[in-house]
Amino acid sequence: MRAKKLTAQLSLSVVVVTHNEGDWLRKTVETFLSTLPAHGCEVIVVDDQSSDGSTAFLSLPEFARAQLIVTPQRLGISGARNLGGRAARAEVIVFSDAHVIAHAGWAEPLYNAAKLDFVGEVAPTVHSMHEPGICGWGFTWNAPSLKMHWLKRRGKGAYPVPFLCGCFVAMRREIFERTGGFDEGLIRWGSEDAEFSFRVWRMGYECHVVSTSAVSHLFRKKFPYEVKWEGVVHNTLRLATIHFGSRALARVVDHYRKFAAFPAAAATLADSNVWQRRELIQRESRLADSWLIDRFEIDVLR
Amino acid sequence: MTADAQTIHGTPRVGVFVLGMHRSGTSMTTRLLNMLGVPLCHPSDLLGRVRGNEKGLWESGTLVRFNDALLRERKATWWCPPRPNNEWIRLPLTADRLEPARNAFCAVHPSSQWLWKDPRTCLTLPFWLRALNFSPVMVVVTRHPFEIAASLRERDRFHPALSVALWERYMHHLLPNLAGMPTLLTPYERILSDTPDWCDTVSQFLGAHGLELNERTQRGALRHFADTSLRHHQFTQIDIGVQLSPQQLALFDWLNTRIGISSAFDPSGCPHETPATDRIFTQIQHRYRLRASTSDAARIFATPKGSPEINRKRPVRPPATAVVISRNEGPMLRRTVRRLFATLPSKAEIIVVDDASTDSSYRPLQKQHERIRVIHLTRRIGIAGARNLGAHESRGDIIVWSDAHINPRQGWFAPLATAVAAPDVGAVGPALSPFFRPKVRVYGLAFADEALNVHWLPRQAHTPYPVPLLPGCFLAMRREVAHIVGGFDHGMIGYGAEDLEMCLRLWKRGLECLIVPRAVVAHRFRAHPKAALEWELFMLNLLRLGTLHLGRENLTRFLEVLRSHDKFDRAFARVTASDAFLRRSALTRESRFDDDWFFQRFEHNLFSVRQHTTNAISD
Fold first, then answer.
1. How confident is the model at residue B57 (pLDDT cuts 50, 70, 90)?
2. Option in B553, B580, B613 nearest A260 (CB)
3. What is the pLDDT of residue B120?
4. In angstroms, rounded to a whole number, what is the distance separating the alpha carbons of residues B454 and B462?
5. Which among A253, A270, A275 has CB closest to B573?
6. Is residue B451 within 8 angstroms of chain A, CB to CB?
7. Using CA atoms, how far apart are residues B389 and B366, in angstroms rounded to an integer?
8. pLDDT tens digits for B559-586?
């Protein structure tokens, strides 16, 4: 009875960011259009300068419900998501990759979890598209490289985890507006999801994985577009600079200094606004940088 | 005794009034004119830095009190000016004030040329013109009333409507009284946008009216002084929440027609005051019960003749201050101070900054001589901090920073002082020789490799000449330069490199570092500390040096060489977590030249080999 009542009020904006995703974009948009009610829900596709013509299908009449936004120049994942998020009108915003199949009934549990006051960000169980039985419920770090380490299932329903994979996350629009969305100082790809979750935790909200909601995500061997290692190193260093104390930061630097891309990434960092960002986050945060590390016993940074 | 406002020791007095509404940039203008060579009031009378004017007010304290007293006699204050008419000037009470005012003015301006700024003078100008019975040259600064309103809102929490009314009334006081005066009227933005060009214009103007200016003033220093940090409010159209009345708009437009030099200012056609302005000030007068107060004024005007408020007991400024920094130097400290004392000119002072020593080596110096001051710190602040503290406490025109294990040779001071006095010179250093090998001498430093290691240089000439870097163990600067560049970098909390950073900063600002071969100082060289903790601190300063000063590509190369060193990770993390990146962008803004210019200037080919390594990844 309760679920039915909430379903009637479902108010979701799904933001799908794409860059040269080919046929996957169409499949992704189709799953949202088929699983979401027409009333109260919208699908926004943000095309971050695709060159493969993969967004052409959106002009077909059956896709009239999906809205297309084209970025003025290449924004990278954070900028494109924020652009879509700002256009969203519903109460809860879902940020999805463009190679995702949502399972039937994914929306209500996720929506209900996101609506809780103390919850900042939620994500469903993420299945691997072509490897049945392989799933992840949020992630943590177990190496100073800050590489994503998927977590096993830890509970029933919705429960807190350190970080949520950016391939599919949802949040109330109020949270999106308060945080200002994803950090646009992160170049192209990488670390934007962990950075956002970290920020949400520090602002005093929780990040929950909703095990009753599920999507399948395509884990690819290769990017369909170029991702520079230098940018990835920069993003990791930026995340660490913004959120870590100098001891944890030194661990990360110690790991990355071995790589050939490190000096250039560090120089890029020096010319960026990372320091102002760090100050801003320190001011706005309710919890200290080490709090999350202690809360989830991320030993590698302690 | 009646002071003579027209001549001093037979030389005719010439002077400049800097006028304009509060928050219009009059302080900045005054300092610029001062840097061009027009002397301000006696330094002991100068008002210091305040909130909102971090670079100084440049006002005479005595004359501000005079102006305030004059206003109080008319039931007014600077924030509630009287109606703009000149009837008060003919009152007998006012006439009594003329002579004390003239005496006070001459006492605080002891030189034949002078420069006086006080925005209140806009309201009291006819009084001062009468008191001084001759015509000064007028430099008037104007600014958009909205910017003034924004600035006053921030500093004094004034309502914008009040600020705009104040601006209008100040202008209506000032403009009619400028009639016939040689005047330069400049908008604030014009000074900021092209400071050197503006300085040329004003030099010409003042020169034509008999002022002698210092032609060698460094343009870099001028430009730096007027840098963007002084632009309290950069916008011209902000949401101030008030509108300009038609009269105020007309006044602003009219002011724009008078921009530039006029040998005799013509106030004709100036629009009338908005009626609402008068209502605002009448209301304020009632609300705050402003009454004519003559007792206050009487006290100020009755101060003994000559110099009303100048404390004559304050000693004259010493020609130089030696700042000796010490930490557990033992008997060397006393020897160093004794040798410095013997070789400095007789009026120079010595400040010993003891950085939390535990060996009480500073104690015997504490009561040795009145010109030796000892500052003992209970908590360690590091080399850069100690040097800056000493400089802050110094009063000499030249600051000589010295380590506590040196032995200067007789006759070092005069050649150093001569070399450092040139306006383009930032810092000077002597030839150094090891303590017990007087024949061996080194003459400044240069970078040796892309890790910013340094090596000593041999002598290149007999007269002072530029070198890339000067060691911090014995370094002299003009106090004004030290003030402008902001002293040693406070973030250099570790060991070493703070002197290199200072020299690089000076060069990038267009200020030279010179070696003076005739000055010789013996220095006890010590091996670099090897202990692990000290190494991290050494690394910290080195990384900070590179981070502050190298451009993106050179920084990349620098990090590439250093990253495999021990403790790099910790030092880099500490640099990253400090304000280094912020300081980096600030330095880029305020520098005239970049690091590549510096390396080319001295034909350093450290960074000629560049590698770019970028790999694509897959997950």
1. confident
2. B613
3. 92
4. 23
5. A253
6. no
7. 17
8. 999 999 988 999 999 999 888 998 898 8
Could you give the CA distance from residue B546 to residue B565 in angstroms, rounded to a whole number?
15
Partners of A165 on chain B (C-beta within 8 Å) are none
Interface of B with A in 507-566 (CB under 8 A): 547, 552-553, 555-560, 563-564
- Has residue A176 got a pLDDT over 50? yes
Q: Do A267 and B572 touch (CB under 8 A)?
A: no
Cβ of residue A157 closer than 8 Å to a chain B Cβ: no
Contacts of A165 (CB under 8 A, 6+ apart): A123, A126, A136, A138, A139, A148, A150, A193, A217
Of B543, B566, B568, B572, which to mutate for an interface test with A (greatest number of A Cβ within 10 Å)? Answer: B572
First to last CA, chain B: 91
Residue B307 confidence (pLDDT) above 60: no
Cβ contact (<8 Å) for A266 and B555?
Answer: yes
Nearest to B559 among A226, A246, A267 (CB): A267
Pairing of strands B183-187, B113-117: unpaired
Place of tokens 């005066």: B181
Confirm if B41 and B108 have CB atoms less than 8 A apart: yes
A115-133: per-residue pLDDT in tens? Answer: 999 999 999 999 999 888 8
Say if CB A231 and CB A269 are below 8 A apart: no
Residue count (chain A): 302
Any bridge partners for residue A95, and if so which? A15, A169
State percent of chain B over pLDDT 70.
Answer: 84
- Is pLDDT of B444 > 60? yes
- Residue B577 contacts A where some CB pair is shorter than 8 Å: yes
> Could you give all domains of chain A from N- to C-terminal order, each with its CATH number?
12-217 (3.90.550.10), 229-301 (no CATH)
Binary contact (B581, A269; C-beta < 8 A): yes
Residue from the list A222, A257, A260 with its beta carbon closest to the beta carbon of B615 = A260
Residues of A in contact with B553 (CB under 8 A): 267
Residue A14 phi/psi, 5-degree rounding, is -100, 120
In the predicted structure, residue B286 carries a pLDDT above the cut 90: no
Token pair 């190193």: residue: A233
Mean of the pLDDT values across residues B198-222? 80
Q: Length of chain B, please?
A: 619
Six-digit token string for A292: 């999350």
* Residues A246, B580: C-beta atoms closer than 8 Å: no
Instruction: Round to whole Å and give the CA distance between A283 and B321.
Output: 42
Nearest Cα neighbor of A167 from A125, A204, A201 is: A125
Instruction: Say what the pLDDT of residue B294 is.
Output: 59
